[in-house]
Every structure is written in C-alpha cells, then in structure tokens.
2-amino-3-carboxymuconate-6-semialdehyde decarboxylase (Caenorhabditis briggsae), 355 residues
Amino acid sequence: MPICEFSSTSKMRKIDVHAHVLPKHIPDFQEKFGYPGFVRLDHKEDGTTHMMKDGKLFRVVEPNCFDTETRIADMDKANVNVQCLSTVPVMFSYWAKPEDTEIVARFVNDDLLAECQKHPDRLIPLGTLPMNDVQRAIQEVRRCYSLGMRGFEIGSHVGERSLDHKDFWPLYKVCEELSVVLFVHPWDMHMWDGRLQKYWMPWLVGMPSETAQAICSVLMGNILVLFPNIRFCFAHGGGSYPIIRGRVSHGWNVRPDLCAGDCQVAPNQLDGKLWTDSLVHDPAALELLINYLSPIFQDHIVLGTDYPFPLGELEVGKVVEEYKPFSAKDRQNLLWENAVKMLGLEENSLFAKDF
C-alpha cells in the first residue's frame, strides 16, 4: 500500500486503531482438522504472498501484512506512532467446529502478542475470539488479558446470531468487568451474492450495511442498557448507520411493536455511547458522524485506516485534516487522545517521537 505524508497532521501524534495483520506462517488447519475453509499463506519467490482458501486464490498480500519490520517502516513514513493490530476477518473461522475455532484463535493471538512485543511502544494487539462458543471466548479473553491484551476484534455477526443475541451476554459481562474494548468489524456478507457480486459491492455496500446492522442490534437489543460500561468500537465510521440513524429512530417511534420489543430506550438516546473509527473517506461523512454519534463533539471517534489494504485511508489523517471546523486540538483528540481514553492506555508507555 502506498504511504504518504499529509501536511500539518504529520506533526501530530497518531494511534491507528484499525490496522490488520496476518501471521507470517499459518499452519495447514485444513489438514490438521480434516475439513476445508481455512486460510493459509503461500509465499512466492517473486516476493508476493497468496492467501489461499480451499485451493483457490483469496487475495494477494504484500509483506506489510505480516512482516513487522516492514510495518514499522511504513508507520514511520506515514508518521503513525502506534498501531492497534487485529487479524484479517477471514481468520475468524466462526463457521468451524468451536474447538477448532479456539485453536485458530489461540494461534493468532499468540502470534499477535509475540509480534507486538518486538515493538511494545508502537504496536498494540487486538485479539480474536472463538465467538461460536461463548465459554471458550470468555476463556480466551481471560487468558489474553492475563498476558496484557486489552481489546479484541469481533465480527458483525456469528452465523445467524447478531450481536444482541443472549448467547453473547456472559461475554459482554466479562468484557465490561475487565474494561476491554470490542472492535466490531464487518465480515461474511453472505447475502451479497448473485447480482450483488458485481462492482465489488459486497465490500463497497455490503460492509457498511453489515456494520449498520450490528449497531442497530446493539442499540435496540438492550445491550448498552444491560452493560452500560461496555465499549464497542465500530469499524468504517459506523458504516451506513450515521445516514440511516434518523430512519432507525423514526421506525422505533412509529413501530414500537417491531422495533422496541427488547429495549424501551430510544436508539438515538444510546448511540452517543458508541465508538467508531474515522475511516469514512470524506469530510462531509465525518461531519455527519460527529453530529450524530458523538454528543461531546468528536470524543468517541478514533483514527482508523484499514492498513495495509487499498480500500483504507492511504494518506493517514487526510480526512481529519480536510474537515475545516476542526481546531488543532480537535485534530489531536481524534488522532491520539480519544484512542488513549478508549483503550485505557498510559501515554508514557507509547511512542511519542517527533517525526
């Protein structure tokens, strides 16, 4: 991914909460477990790496997806002080047997912890969980928490269960008690097939829709009432939710029989408790996000780029810079301070080099 410096934000400290990583060497889980669906990496002599799934090419990735020193060099070029690293969602493996998903999650998390320890002042691990078995997920949260992990990436749904499902409530209770962040990433847009496969629509339209569905489930599923101190951070600026927020609120008011069964609190009274990243690609969209989801201006929005993939923000901080109403303090809050607060970090443990 090309990395570019960008004007005055290059002098500001930056924590990128949305950056992906893969283990450089992934076991052959298909052979280990005896059934297909798992990803492996095929490193080619020309320096490229093929993500393979069921014998077919899934995606070509560059070394910055799995090589830590390449990542650090890219961070330096982009003037990014700290990255929060989470796996690529295809590694979630929620569809697998729970005991196998747990093995995959432990492997990914151990690799994440080891790579982040190479640069502990620059890299923060956000683990993955076997969400298809909540007790296994809780065990993995506690295990990783004991090793210093303070956040986890989860998918926007687990099979047919959305994030409001009661199966997940014990996990939310533990995450609330430990004060860990759940970073929600859209994935498995399984309904986007046939005519919806054209023009990369599963990624361009399906992912924002998936995130909006996840937010609506959390808001109207009583989750933020039952667990008032839990911190959900949604990728891609909350997806399409900011633009449909008024529609959702109106629907809750006019059809409470369909919308308010699980929660008597209007969604627009709760959405200020959400966190999102800033990955919206457009200053006008950032303004919408600020006005709707962050009641104290922009205090619940954190920098996210989707590194190292091309659909992410290639010029780190560009949208924040182009949003004219921001003061220098506002920009620094979004690029740094808000993430420090969300993640409960000690600032003196983080890299503060002047680029």
In short: The chain has one domain: 7-25+78-348. The first strand starts at residue 15 and ends at 21. The longest helix spans residues 201-220.
